[in-house]
Design brief:
By secondary structure, the protein is mainly beta. Helix content is 0%, strand content 38%.
Length: 282
């Protein structure tokens, strides 16, 4: 891991931008006009110019995963108190604080339109969804009952579905209620690995006007029952491979273990997901 950030111009075969920091660079997000850099205890936003111009710098709680998100109008990153998220408007510098969780953050992601923020803590049982406009909590989803290490969160291009992976070797898909697809055709989902393993779709019903996958049926409607019986669960799930060796193939044979340049430890992060379109996850 390096204290330098280098942006390479592949056409000219030269370093277009070089930034140096006092501590290790944990994460970088780029757009056509901004550069967002996360260190252990701070994030800094630069204008993508030559040389880069510093726009904002904010302190954070310990952020060993380098959590940060860069949208077209806002940036999001951990607050100075564990479990909090700071949202900053790029145009004005206005700061909003979301008390997302009671324990440190493990994963955050913005929707493609920048209107939604999904968060998970180190506990890994609950995923929370917030509006970036007024910082209100929109919904809460239950991944499971046991504690888990959340690998990745990703919201679909249409801002209607949320994908989650964890060390439980499962990919979960949740409906985003305010953009319910209950009145639209639900796309068939496919993954890039284990394509022969079909998604298991919940046999619970969807409530009118939103998705409320109550796994426990009538138990979720009884008074004084633990909240896990009434929580919203994923409508689909699929097994994923989380082999410790990122070079291992699905057949179990391993390729030569050559470190990947620019990645801490030389190994790819496990369980990282993205959407190619509303029906395909990689």
């Amino acid at each position: 891991m390096s204290n330098q950030l280098i942006i390479w111009d592949d056409a000219k075969q030269v370093a277009a931008v070089t930034l140096e920091f006092r501590s290790q660079v944990l994460q970088t997000r780029l757009s056509r006009s901004q550069i967002l850099v996360a260190l252990l205890n701070s994030v800094t936003l630069y204008a993508f110019s030559s040389p880069p111009k510093k726009l904002f710098s904010f302190e954070t709680a310990d952020n060993p995963s380098g959590l940060c998100c860069l949208g077209s109008k806002i940036i999001a990153f951990p607050g100075r108190t564990p479990g909090q998220v700071q949202i900053v408007e790029i145009g004005t510098g206005n700061v909003s604080i979301i008390p997302a969780h009671g324990s440190p953050l493990k994963a955050i992601t913005l929707s493609p339109n920048g209107e939604l923020l999904a968060t998970a803590s180190e506990t890994g049982t609950l995923i929370r969804l917030f509006s970036t406009t007024n910082c209100a909590r929109i919904s809460e989803f239950r991944r499971g009952v046991d504690q888990a290490h959340i690998f990745s969160l990703a919201i679909s291009p249409s801002n209607t579905l949320l994908a989650v992976t964890s060390d439980k070797a499962t990919l979960h898909i949740f409906d985003l209620p305010q953009f319910s697809m209950s009145h639209h055709h639900k796309p068939a989902l496919a993954t890039s690995s284990r394509s022969s393993s079909p998604y298991s779709t919940s046999d619970t019903s969807t409530t009118e006007g939103g998705s409320n996958k109550q796994k426990w049926g009538i138990l979720g409607k009884l008074p004084l029952m633990p909240r896990l019986f009434s929580d919203t669960y994923s409508f689909a799930s699929a097994p994923i491979t989380i082999d410790d060796d990122p070079y291992a193939t699905l057949s179990g044979t391993a390729k030569p273990s050559v470190p990947i340049p620019g990645i801490p430890g030389g190994k790819a992060r496990k369980g990282v997901i993205g959407w190619l379109d509303d029906g395909t996850i990689v």
